[in-house]
Amino acid sequence: MSWFADLTPYTYHEHVGGEPEPNTLNIGWLDTGMEFSTGECDRDFVARLRDLCRDGVNRTRGLYRCNLCSTSAFGGIWPPESNRVASPGGDFVVGGAEIRVTGADGTVYAAPDMIIHYVERHQYKPPEQFVAAVIDRT
């Protein structure tokens, strides 16, 4: 997966021949060696984010494995444990799609569906604008 700094213009699909997505910003495109904000996230935010990640968009043909996890976490199982998300509504797999969330000001946030794993397992703390957009989403 590609790394993009939070709140920078979303250009991922332009690189692979897609159309530009104006007013869309990157959130949660993490990679080893790149710093990211950490901290505790609100439980309501995490629950709503988990629901969003269940039904991603821009699905790919494969799964990205979290490279922030140790390689021993991959083992021989498929899908890798880092791609499994436990949920009251039933477990599901992430790492092969994106999510979109629109803020109150019309800004669209584009994140990999793996963002829920980053929040829950690596204490990633997304920018407040994104958190507010997820919480305010109806």
What does this structure look like?
The protein is of the alpha+beta class and 138 residues long. The chain has one domain. It is 24% helix and 12% strand. The protein contains four helices and five strands. The strands form two sheets. A three-stranded mixed β-sheet has the order 1-5-4, with helices on one face. A two-stranded antiparallel ribbon has the order 2-3. Helix 2 runs antiparallel to helix 3 and helix 2 crosses helix 4. The longest helix is centred in the middle third of the chain and has 12 residues. The radius of gyration is 14 Å and the shape is globular.
What keywords describe this structure?
single chain; about 140 residues; alpha+beta; two-stranded antiparallel ribbon; 4 helices; about 10% strand; globular
Report the total helices: 4
So what's the overall shape? Answer: globular
Q: What is the string of SSEs from the N terminus onward?
A: HEHEEEEHH
Radius of gyration: 14 Å
Please give the largest β-sheet.
Answer: 3 strands, mixed
Q: What number is the mean pLDDT?
A: 87
Spans of at least 5 consecutive residues whose pLDDT stays below 50 are none
Spatial strand arrangement across the major sheet: 1-5-4
Q: Tell me the distance between the termini.
A: 29 Å
Q: By helix and strand content, what is the structural category? A: alpha+beta
Q: Work out the number of β strands.
A: 5
Percentage of residues in strands: 5-15%
